[in-house]
Amino acid sequence: MKRILIVSTVSRQFYLFEQGNIEVLKTLGYEVHCAANFEDANERLDALDIIRQSFDIQRSPFSLKNIKAYDQLRKIMKSENFDVIHCHSPMGGVLARLAAKSLGSSPVIYTAHGFHFYDGAPHKNWLVYYNIEKYLSKYTDIIVTINKEDYERAKTFSSKKVIAVPGIGVDSDKFDCVNIDRNKKREELGIPDGAVAFLTIGEMIKRKNHETALRALAELEHKNFVLLICGKGELKHYLEELSQKLGISDKVKFLGFRNDIPEICVASDIFVFPSYQEGLPVSVMEAMSAGLPIIASRIRGNTDLIENDCGGYLHDPEDYLGFAKSMDKIIGNEKLRAKMGVRNKEEVKKYDKQVVKDTMRELYESL
Question: Radius of gyration of the chain from Cα atoms?
Fold first, then answer.
């Protein structure tokens, strides 16, 4: 039986992002081993039926504990003699490729879920991550990228091959099966009668940039709206205070972590996503699958999914006046919203999970 080692930093990577790959590998007859720091093991991890290889990898590239983690990973690779190494996350990619090189292990695949160096990234990201990735690419047989910007950049590196896959994909038909009473769901969510419901999904951290959405809402000419924020995070208190200062606290609902995202998408009208940095955002793909128009930041990943003026509108992340202008344009035009929603439902089929599985199956079969 062929054996593959999938390496990442944290174990939730495997059930959040690698479940499809693991399913494909098993159908191809692979015994799947997964190496990470398994401190956060849970039932979702148990359901994957993988062989766990725990080592003390740390997310920070400056942690001295990664020296020990490198030795641990090298021993795992040496004792198991894997047929394929597939690594993820910046530090997982660093340690796995160095260990594989030292042992002469191949082939080595590295999936970049969004390079930390990107157009507009801080200079320190380019100084640290770009040079590391460029150097390690010569020890990489295949680099897998999930957006156009990363794909073009990776092609300038030294790996033998670069391919593109549409992220982890989305179940593009899932939202067609959401059977709810939309009016009842809107009432449950506290959406007033006749109000337009904006929706944004993401952890309340600086990278997700909820602040721009709030500042844009405060500028709207139309006043009959509500914003639903799904997610939790360290900036919740700050964002609550900001909404009060802007005079829109009665129109913003902090819903926290939710297990009913498909139902909330169907109950909403417009998706807002002003994030600073993404790889290929699943939340945007899900909103597209639900037939929502998208108003988003003009950044890597978002530009792959949304064509300006077609499926929605794109603006610089901090251009809250631009966001407000597009919100006002679309909020009172149901026909335009419907047209954009239809376009998005069709466009997102290119990013279906089955497309990802077929691409990865072809990659694994070619090894």
Answer: 22
CATH number of this structure's domain 2-169+352-366: 3.40.50.2000
- Work out the average pLDDT over 355-360: 96
Q: Which DSSP letter does residue 295 get?
A: E
CA–CA dist 220, 223 (Å, integer): 7
Cβ neighbours for 248, distance < 8 A, ≥ 6 positions apart:
214, 217, 218, 227
Q: Which CATH number applies to 174-351?
A: 3.40.50.2000
Record the tokens describing residue 130, joined without a space: 């770009």
CA–CA separation, 175 and 263 (whole Å): 8
Q: What are 197-219's pLDDT values in tens digits?
A: 999 999 999 999 999 999 999 99
Q: What is the pLDDT of residue 155?
A: 97
Neighbour-count burial for 90-118, b at 16+ CB within 10 Å, e otherwise: bbbbbbbbebbeeeebbbbbbbbbbbbbb
Q: Are 19 and 48 in contact (CB under 8 A)?
A: yes
Ranges in the chain annotated CATH 3.40.50.2000: 2-169+352-366, 174-351
Q: Which residue has the tokens 């919100």?
A: 327
In this predicted model, what pLDDT tens digit does every residue of 160-171 receive, in sequence order? 999 999 999 999
Q: CA 178, CA 158: separation in Å to the nearest integer? A: 46
Question: What's the pLDDT at 41?
Answer: 66
pLDDT at 177: 84
- State pLDDT tens for residues 59-94: 998 899 999 999 999 999 999 999 999 999 999 999
| Paired tokens of 311 | 């499926």
Q: Can you tell me the mean pLDDT for 243-259?
A: 97
Sign of torsion, CA 64 70 73 75? negative
Token pair 């006002």 in the structure block, residue: 328
Q: Which residue has 């909404």 as its token pair?
A: 243
Cα atoms found within 13 Å of the Cα of residue 221, Cβ hemisphere only: 7
